[in-house]
Design a protein that fits this description.
single chain, alpha/beta, Rossmann fold, 9 helices, 7 strands, 23% strand
């Protein structure tokens, strides 16, 4: 995914924080921070921080120290800066994961939740993560597994391609670029990390309805670009059509008016700068 594709415009960052963070990303943030175990007094960086759910959770767990959240998207950072936080202070910085603007050895912990799959040069991003780690530093990274292993997402992309044409789901499918945990382990090994441990983790995701799930995906993520040039009536009609098709593609078929729940799978890796 190019940098431009990942830019959220208008009110999409606010919608992302309001709806998708509670439903999805907060669950993964808890898991990632638990595995990294940031401690009081440490310096922690959250790469591709978005609206900052991981950074804020790390800061609260630490109590003291310093947290840095860095993201390429100014809109997401704008939301992050408005949200309250507890514990360690947080610096919000706009910048690229491929060229982190920090000296080598600056951080005790590097966190990256669901960002690596979007970077155009994943190996370079991982090398940068390792470079900014202190010699005793540790890293925790999560990425979604193959989309077929998250039934709700798979039903959604099938519906999107049928409703808007083949290829319409490219951005969503890009979230699920890692076919197996070995791919993540190999990338981290090539980047020079040691003591690598990759776990397959499943979270239970639930939305009030299929329509809500589809609406949030199409308005609060980079997929908003699919509807950007549409009039409001057409936009709502497309959302309704995709929701109906998503319900039909779900296994078993999902009730359009009831809770839409499904398992979501990811690979979560922890590692050290050195073995």
């Amino acid at each position: 995914m190019s940098d431009g594709q990942w830019q959220l415009e208008g009110n999409s960052p606010e919608l992302f924080q309001r709806y998708l963070v509670p439903a999805i990303t907060s669950k993964w943030a808890e898991d990632l921070v638990d595995r990294a175990g940031p401690r009081a007094g440490e310096h922690v960086i959250d790469i591709a921080c978005g609206t900052g759910v991981v950074a804020r959770l790390a800061a609260k767990r630490m109590g003291s120290g310093r947290v840095t959240g860095i993201d390429l998207n100014a809109g997401m950072l704008g939301v992050a800066r408005t949200l309250p936080s507890e514990g360690a202070p947080i610096d919000w910085i706009e910048g690229s994961a491929l060229d982190l603007p920090f000296p080598s050895g600056s951080f005790d912990v590097v966190l990256c939740q669901q960002g690596l799959q979007f970077f155009p040069e994943r190996g370079q991003a991982l090398r940068e993560m390792r470079r900014v780690l202190a010699d005793s530093g540790r890293v925790a990274v999560s990425v979604y597994s193959a989309i077929e292993r998250t039934p709700g997402a798979n039903a959604f992309v099938c519906a999107l391609d049928e409703a808007l044409g083949t290829g319409s789901s490219q951005i969503k499918r890009g979230e699920h670029a890692f076919a197996n945990p070995g791919e993540l382990e190999t990338l981290m090994t090539k980047a020079g990390f040691g003591a690598i441990d990759v776990q397959t983790v499943v979270q239970s995701i639930a939305f009030p309805s299929v329509l809500d799930c589809v609406r949030f995906q199409l308005l609060a993520t980079p997929m908003a670009s699919l509807l950007r040039d549409k009039q409001e009536t057409e936009r709502q009609a497309i959302i309704s059509t995709v929701a109906s098709k998503t319900a039909a593609f779900s296994i078993p078929p999902a009730p359009e008016g009831g809770t839409f729940s499904f398992p979501q799978e990811a690979y979560v890796a922890t590692a050290r700068k050195y073995p």
